[in-house]
Structure formats: C-alpha cells, structure tokens
Known about the structure:
The protein is globular, with a radius of gyration of 12 Å. It has one domain (3-92): Chitinase A, domain 3, CATH 3.10.50. The chain is built from 3 helices and 4 strands; from the N terminus they run E-H-H-E-H-E-E. Strand 3 and strand 4 (82-92) form a beta hairpin. By secondary structure, the protein is α+β, with helices and mostly antiparallel strands.
Amino acid sequence: MPRATARHILVASEAKCNELKTAIEGGADFAQIAKENSTCPSSRQGGDLGSFGPGQMVREFDQVVFSAPVGVVQGPVKTQFGYHLLEVTSRQD
C-alpha cells in the first residue's frame, strides 16, 4: 500500500494561496508561512500532516499527493475546505 508524508497550507482564497506560493518559491520558509497563515490545526506543526495512505484525505488532495514530485510545492488545490498549497515530503509506492 502506498504511503506518503506531506505538509500543507490551507487558506480561504485562491489569491492568498498564490501569494503564499510566490513567497515560498522566493525563499520563504514553508513551515513558518504555514504557522502564520494556515487555518488548519496542522499549522502548529508547520503544516505537517504526518504519514497517510490513499483514501485518507479528500480526493483532490490524494490526486496531488500520490502523483506530484516529492519536494515541489503544488497548488492552489481547491477542496471543500478552501485552497491548499501541498508539498509531498516523502512517498513509498
């Protein structure tokens, strides 16, 4: 069974998500941006979601986490919760 670890930032708007992605791509620390901006409780851990398998997260999230390259920030990804920036930190297939 595939497993992945990932971290994310959840915000209410696509514009804010794009703004934060630009900051991270410019060298800002993902974990610090998550702590300061994410509305998910995982923000306290820098957005870290730990380890999970397919089907444990919402479908849109799963599609990115189990296909995107490791270590590359993806998004905005829209889900029922808002807009996410996702970074797969490891994956075993």
